[in-house]
Amino acid sequence: MQISNEKVAAIHYTLTDNNGTVLDSSAGKDPLYYLHGFGNLIPGMEEGLEGKSVGDQFEIKVSPEKGYGLRNDAAIQQVPISAFGGADVRVGSQFQAGNEHGQYIVTVTEVNADMVTVDANHPLAGVELNFKVEVIEVREATSDEIAHGHVHGPHGAH
Fold it and tell me: 69 phi and psi, to 5 degrees?
């Protein structure tokens, strides 16, 4: 069986940047299960998995445009420190923010006496991603998984 829309796939992967730095990996953990065709993975990853079968081992290179997007300088803002309600604000801290378009995470990149610089870009925005992948399992999705748009566990149960 090949990975295609409405199939559940299980993969092991290692993600690196172009310098070979490991950014994430399923090594030593359970494989990643996902429902194909429902946007549960970044677009470039899902495209690279299309048509693959159990036992396939391969590499996928994902451009920023098909990964976490390009960096957007407009997503970097200065906010009064008072907006954090007395929270411990440090470089690297992450906070949930929101606007009329929904909720998102911001990362603190600079803290001054009265202002905080936050970046709403995904940490991997602008980064070319390199995946080493092995397909472990491919199965039909259950009707509940399709209706809900995500996997309900390795064998289709919650």
Answer: 85, 170
pTM reported for the whole predicted model:
0.83
d(CA 6, CA 48): 16
Domains located in the chain, CATH noted: 7-68+125-148 (3.10.50.40), 73-119 (2.40.10.330)
pLDDT value for 97: 86
Asked if 36 and 51 touch (Cβ cutoff 8 Å), the reply is: no
State residue 19's pLDDT score: 96
Q: Give 54-68 pLDDT, tens digit per residue.
A: 999 999 999 999 999
Position 43: which residue type?
P
pLDDT at position 137 is 97
Residue 6: pLDDT band with limits 50, 70, 90: very high
Cα angle value 102/62/25 (rounded, 5°): 85
